[in-house]
Automatic annotation (TrEMBL):
GO biological process: antibiotic biosynthetic process
Family per record: Belongs to the peptidase S45 family.
Matching InterPro entries: Ntn_hydrolases_N, Pen/GL7ACA/AHL_acylase, Penicillin_amidase_A-knob, Penicillin_amidase_dom1, Penicillin_amidase_N_B-knob, S45
Name of the protein in question: Protein-like penicillin acylase
Pfam families reported in the protein's UniProt record: Penicil_amidase
Subunit: Heterodimer of an alpha subunit and a beta subunit processed from the same precursor.
UniProt entry keywords in alphabetical sequence: Calcium, Hydrolase, Metal-binding, Zymogen
Binding-site residues for Ca(2+), renumbered to this chain: E175, D312, D315
Cofactor(s) required, per the database record: Ca(2+)
A molecular-function term among this protein's GO annotations: metal ion binding
Cofactor comment text: Binds 1 Ca(2+) ion per dimer.
Coiled coil: none
Length: 767
């Protein structure tokens, strides 16, 4: 009886935490009635009389569907995760507390215009109404034995700041690592390891002059005896592109976007559509639970997409401190650190004090190799570096208007690709670009003499911008977009190699007419163009008797499909071979530097590693031949055989069964299942093999890939395409939990707009 009663209680609580889909809610604090209809996938269409009511409705939906996700985002930025999930989050909380983002978010709310503050407040009221309208608190809180806390307007800024922490480096990892590398190897080696570009470049403004990549005359400056695994680091992601109206089947311009992020359950985005009566338009796209804005999408006049922009949005400042490390030097003399004691609460009732030190430039973040104290100056911590101006994009009617708004928007910096219904397209950076004086920001530097500073942000008229007419094409993929003086304005924090962008560019230049399905096909392009030369290198080794021919490698490489198909053995083998070569050469150099410096991050410096790696295997300099081999050919054959051994577990399994999909199997999990694994089958998405990989448009890993796919031509949204992993739902008993996921897995062209209404809910004001 006790077990039965417990089961009934659990079921009632689970049912009670499901979102309200139908009926009406009366006496709600809104100005007019709001109608929310959901289609079979749970995608809502909001019909409200004014934007503040739309924000209320969106907050209501986010809270009912995704409150736990929103809570994690705000707590992550604020350094308050331990209070909810326990001491396992303590180190993360300590790291994030040094930015004091909760206090900064509260100040941001005070600083924005009244209409934007009212929007955030209406959203917060909607969140709290949605949360309290649930019959039972969200199920995650029952499992954690916690109670959710109400939403504040400042929490929306915390969610945006959490995205900064996700998409940018709050520890200055790139600058610090580049400095360590520069200090660790001779200049010739540094330039060899870190070229400014190469054959994969695909800037939209055309190629830049390249300095030949010269192999250093000296031997390896460092070489670890430990096995390195650097080449298999997680890849960068996100693609967008646009084509002008003369190149589309609709006559309007067309934009495609797929945002690549770490994937989990639920998905980071929440789909939504709303009718804006005041602006007389319908907005459709993705929203971030926790914020009242349309992130990417279409308003019928423009459509826009983002990719993360790896410019230089922070500077690391090397402080000159006194002997007791209580003061630091400035141009006006010695100043004392401002010190705060941050209290971090833990869910067991205990707490920890974390000291935070601030300078006039920004918070202290640690030390360098020489023991110097370091501070960071970072855009989101600056006045107006983070703001609510993204809402302005909703009102843009043309590419020109969107490009004019972009420099004023305070979000994590993105490559904005925008298309309008008149057929024009454009690109710029959306986000605040620092205006540097006296420095380029490439390495940490001393600001104590007053000759280095930021003078606010770059004015809009100085922003790098590219506009194309109805016959144009634009593309970005986390690599360099422009060159020369325009690139200097943006800076560099670890651009991806241009292979993905180049493949997209070539796909776009291969045709003169595009439908939405054509652009989806580019998003799904998993051809292994980047690995082609590595495959050819492997084939050239097959006549060597030392190759493990009995494994069947000759047939596998001879039947190379040239794509990252889930059933391909050849792709997996070629990929592994490239990684093995890099790991046994440049990887051992980087491994040795990492062993000598805890301030060196290998992932921060390897995006261009293919250039020096290919130079080594193609030129085969005798003085750099790895120890223990009498020729480069012998070394490469060993790498080939090692790859076969690794994939077959030293011959225990047939090579022909080692498909790419056996490795590239989806593992999309809910955050609670790490602590409560018995819930995995209930909460997580199915494990299944998938196509795609790094260095191609279809970026896909087990838990990394396109968090959405969008193709839309403004004014023709009815023929647009949208895919999203997992689903809209955050609750496993929702009728649309997991719906739409298979369309994303298979790359099926599901509709951009919400479908016919399956459920309708009316929110009514006080009479």
């Amino acid at each position: 009886m006790l077990v039965s009663a417990l089961g009934v209680t659990v079921y009632i609580n689970l049912q009670g935490s499901l979102p309200r889909l139908e009926g009406h809610l009366d006496g709600v604090p809104v100005s007019q009635s709001i109608n929310i209809s959901r289609d079979s996938n749970g995608t809502p269409l909001i019909e409200a009389g004014q934007r503040s009511d739309t924000a209320f409705a969106l907050g209501f939906l986010h809270a009912q569907e995704r409150f736990f996700q929103m809570d994690l985002l705000r707590r992550n930025a604020a350094g308050e995760l331990s209070e909810l999930i326990g001491p396992s989050a303590l180190e993360r909380d300590k790291n994030n507390r040094k930015f004091q983002l909760r206090q900064r978010a509260e100040n941001m709310v005070k600083a924005i215009p009244d209409d934007q503050r009212a929007l955030l407040q209406a959203y917060a009221e909607g969140v709290n109404y949605g949360l309290h309208s649930l019959k039972s608190r969200p199920f995650e809180y029952w499992l954690l034995r916690q109670k959710p806390q109400d939403w504040q307007a400042s929490d929306s800024f915390l969610c945006l700041l959490s995205m900064y922490l996700n998409l940018q480096q709050g520890d200055g990892g790139f600058e610090r690592s580049m400095q360590v590398l520069k200090d660790s190897v001779p200049a010739a080696w540094y330039h060899f390891l870190q070229p400014t570009g190469g054959q994969w470049d695909a800037m939209i403004t055309g190629p830049q002059p390249l300095t030949p990549l010269l192999i250093p005359d000296s031997g390896w400056p460092a070489f670890s005896s430990q096995q390195a695994r650097i080449a298999a680091q997680p890849a960068l992601g996100s693609n967008n592109w646009a084509v002008g109206g003369n190149l589309t089947t609709t006559g309007s311009a067309m934009v495609a976007n797929d945002l690549h992020l770490t994937l989990g359950v639920p998905n980071i985005w929440y789909r939504a559509s709303w009718l804006d009566i005041q602006l007389q338009r319908q907005l459709t796209g993705i929203t971030l639970p926790g914020a009242p804005f349309m992130i990417t999408g279409s308003n019928g006049h423009i459509a826009w997409g983002f990719t993360n922009a790896y410019g230089d949005w922070s500077d690391i400042i090397t402080l000159q401190t006194n002997d007791s490390d209580t003061m630091y030097l400035t141009a006006t003399g010695w100043e004392s650190f401002t010190i705060y004691q941050e209290t971090i609460h833990i869910n067991d009732g205990s707490s920890v004090l974390e000291p935070v030190r601030l300078t006039r430039w920004g918070p202290v973040i640690g030390q360098d190799n020489q023991g110097h104290t370091l501070a960071i100056k970072w855009v989101p911590l600056e006045h107006d570096g983070t703001n609510a101006n993204l809402v302005r994009l909703e009102a843009a009617n043309t590419v020109d208007e969107a490009l004019a708004y972009a420099p004023l928007v305070g979000i994590p910096h993105q490559n904005l690709a925008v298309a309008d219904s008149q057929g024009n397209i454009g690109w710029t950076i959306i986000g605040r670009i620092p205006k540097r004086v006296g420095l380029d920001g490439e390495y940490p530097s001393d600001w104590s003499k007053g000759d280095k500073s930021w003078q606010g942000f770059l004015p809009p008229e100085q922003y790098p911008t590219v506009k194309r007419d109805r016959n144009g094409r634009i593309w970005t993929a986390n690599s360099q977009v422009v060159s020369g003086d325009e690139l200097k304005k943006i800076g560099n924090s670890g651009y991806d190699i241009g292979a993905r962008a180049q493949q997209i560019r070539d796909d776009l230049e291969a045709k003169n007419q595009f439908s939405e399905a054509d652009l989806l096909a580019i998003q799904l392009d998993d051809r292994a163009v980047f690995l082609q030369r590595w495959h050819e290198l492997m084939v050239s080794l097959l006549d060597d008797p030392a190759v493990n021919h009995s494994s069947g490698v000759d047939d596998i490489l001879g039947n190379w499909e040239g794509r990252a198909g889930k059933n391909s053995v050849g792709y997996r083998l070629v990929r592994h071979f490239r990684n093995e070569v890099i790991d046994q050469t440049i990887g051992r150099l980087y491994q040795q530097i990492e062993e000598q410096s805890r301030f060196f991050s290998i992932p921060a410096v390897i995006e261009y590693v293919d250039y020096p790696a290919w130079a080594l295997v193609s030129e085969q300099p005798e003085h750099l031949l790895p120890q223990g081999y009498d020729s480069w050919r012998a070394f490469l054959v060993t790498c080939l055989n090692n790859s076969i051994d690794d994939l077959t577990q030293n011959g225990k399994e047939p090579l022909k069964q080692q498909t790419w999909g056996k490795y590239n199997t989806l593992n999309l999990t809910h955050p609670l299942t790490k602590a409560l694994p018995f819930l995995s089958s209930w909460l997580n998405m199915p494990h299944e093999a998938v196509d795609g990989d790094d260095y191609m448009p279809r970026v896909q890993g087990p838990a990394f890939g396109s968090s959405d796919r969008m193709v839309v031509s403004p004014g023709h949204e009815q023929s647009g395409i949208f895919n999203m992993p997992t689903s809209q739902a955050g609750h496993p008993m929702s009728p649309y939990y997991g719906k739409g996921h298979q369309d994303w897995v298979q790359g099926h062209a599901s509709p951009f707009l919400p479908g016919p209404a399956q459920w309708t809910l009316e929110i009514r004001p006080d009479k």
